């Protein structure tokens, strides 16, 4: 869970102490005060991630504090604590900009998640603002956009391999940006001033692929009225990018292997060998080792092109990069369409982008942003500007993260953990847990006994959690 700096205001010191204790145990840094006026001074001096305030205070009511706090720190998430009889006041607080409200006595199990969401929203606000400032200053990221751990590793590997002449194999799902990796390797290499020549092996008919790669002599076949230089020779002094090499026919693979070994090509219909000097970067979305097992890809060619392998992670595994990529595309497309004023993401649109799974990877995100830029009527992209599939998306996946095979668990263990997590979310209430899981109570009891699931709240799983009065 994201932690942050919190300011809690209540003229009841006992409540402050309990609230502070609950939130500090969750890892937050908590400042407390019994004075709303003091709180306003602290809000100006410190950029808190969330304000927690009572509504009924003598010095200043919470509604006025909300208005003044937001005037000093626009966008500051405010969670309001209200008595059971103050629902109208709580709704009024939401209308003036409060983020959430909780009724008193406050359940600690509700307080923690509410504050956690507020802190995450504040962090997202800061990130969107930072990226928007980059756009306004005209700062453009490098070819490989992204600061996630996965992309940092890719960038590091690209930087190390670029200075060599080793052949590189880039593996990644469709749309992840494999050609961008190849271009980055080229631009950082000693061949950066030379040509970058790319071919999609899956897009060229098999009977024409040899001519595209190696060229042809005059009269080699019908309509070959003039000789043609193949892309191997065209790429001399630079980099040749062989995209989707896993789609190449076996017969062509043998000829490609010979060319790579001899560093020469023989144009179709010619008896003359022509030398080339190009660095080879290949890419595929197929598992080439499996293709080798099924005799669809040559093992010797695999080892020739796979001197260094770069695994490019899908976008769903690098959520941290989504907003950086989106901002990069916004800048590029706004510039292409000659917009008169800067365009940025709204926080609500950013949340939609972060929630989506991106099966089409970076290419799908680029298309989404292109549509959003075209639809945007104001200086911000809103959720209404995004495609319907992204606006309506609901993530129903169970996320499992494992670094090694030893961490993979059985289905029974997965179910045990999931039931325990649901029980924790509902404070050990078995009726609510059964409802969320789609089970009747008897079935849930049997599973609890089978898996020996302990109550996360302590004691009986139906017991209530700690309360803050």
Entry summary:
The protein is α/β, with parallel strands linked by helices and 469 residues long.
Tell me what you see in this structure.
There is one protein chain. The chain has 469 residues and is of the alpha/beta class. It folds into 4 domains: 5-135, Rossmann fold; 149-311, 3-Layer(aba) Sandwich (Rossmann fold); 316-391, Helicase, Ruva Protein, domain 3 (Orthogonal Bundle); 405-456, Homeodomain-like (Arc Repressor Mutant, subunit A, Orthogonal Bundle), CATH 1.10.10. The protein is 46% helix and 14% strand. The chain is built from 19 helices and 18 strands. The protein has helices at 13-25, 36-45, 62-72, 87-95, 108-137, 149-162, 178-188, 206-214, 231-234, 250-262, 288-293, 299-305, 322-336, 347-355, 361-375, 388-391, 411-425, 430-437, 441-451, and strands at residues 5-9, 29-33, 50-54, 78-82, 100-103, 106-107, 168-171, 196-200, 215-216, 228-229, 239-243, 264-265, 274-275, 279-284, 308-311, 344-345, 380-381, 467-468. Strands 2-1-3-4-5 form a 5-stranded parallel β-sheet, sandwiched between helices. The two termini are 24 Å apart. Residues 136-142, 396-407 and 457-469 have low confidence and may be disordered.
């Amino acid at each position: 869970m994201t932690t942050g700096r919190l300011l809690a205001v209540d003229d009841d010191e006992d409540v402050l102490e309990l609230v502070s204790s609950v939130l500090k145990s969750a890892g937050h840094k908590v400042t407390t005060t019994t004075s709303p006026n003091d709180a306003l001074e602290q809000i100006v001096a410190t950029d808190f991630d969330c304000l927690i305030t009572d509504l009924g205070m003598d010095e200043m009511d919470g509604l006025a504090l909300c208005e003044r706090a937001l005037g000093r720190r626009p966008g500051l998430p405010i969670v309001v604590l209200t008595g059971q009889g103050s629902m109208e006041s709580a709704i009024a607080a939401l209308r003036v900009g409060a983020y959430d409200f909780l009724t008193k006595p406050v359940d600690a199990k509700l307080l923690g998640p509410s504050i956690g969401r507020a802190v995450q929203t504040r962090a997202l606000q800061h990130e969107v603002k930072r990226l928007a400032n980059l756009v306004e200053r005209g700062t453009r990221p490098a070819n490989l956009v992204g600061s996630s751990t996965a992309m940092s590793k890719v960038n590091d590997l690209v930087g190390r391999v670029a200075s060599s002449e080793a052949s590189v194999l880039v593996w990644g799902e469709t749309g992840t940006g494999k050609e961008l990796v190849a271009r980055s390797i080229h631009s950082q290499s000693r061949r950066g001033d030379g040509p970058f020549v790319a071919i999609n092996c899956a897009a060229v008919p098999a009977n024409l692929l040899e001519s595209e790669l190696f060229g042809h002599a005059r009269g080699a076949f019908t309509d070959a009225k003039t000789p043609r230089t193949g892309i191997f020779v065209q790429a001399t002094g630079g980099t040749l990018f062989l995209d989707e090499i896993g789609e190449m026919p076996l017969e062509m693979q043998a000829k490609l292997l010979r060319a790579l070994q001899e560093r020469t090509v023989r144009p179709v219909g010619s008896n003359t060998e022509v030398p080339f000097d190009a660095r080879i970067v290949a890419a595929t979305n197929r598992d080439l080792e499996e293709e080798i097992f099924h005799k669809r890809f040559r093992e010797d060619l695999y080892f020739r092109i796979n001197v260094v392998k770069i695994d490019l992670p899908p976008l769903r595994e690098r959520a941290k990069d989504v907003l950086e990529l989106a901002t990069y595309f916004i800048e590029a497309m706004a510039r292409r369409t000659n917009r008169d004023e800067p365009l940025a993401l709204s926080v609500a649109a950013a949340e939609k982008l972060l929630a989506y799974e991106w099966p089409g990877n970076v290419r799908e995100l680029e298309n989404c942003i292109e549509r959003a830029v075209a639809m945007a009527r104001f200086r911000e992209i809103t959720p209404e500007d995004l495609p319907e599939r992204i606006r309506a998306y609901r993530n129903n996946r169970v996320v499992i993260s494992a670094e090694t095979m030893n961490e993979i668990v059985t289905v029974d263990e997965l179910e045990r953990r999931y039931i325990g997590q649901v029980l924790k979310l509902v404070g050990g209430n078995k009726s609510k847990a059964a409802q969320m899981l789609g089970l009747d109570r008897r079935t849930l009891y049997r599973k609890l006994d089978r898996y020996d699931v302990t109550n996360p709240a302590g004691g009986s799983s139906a017991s209530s959690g700690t309360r803050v009065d």
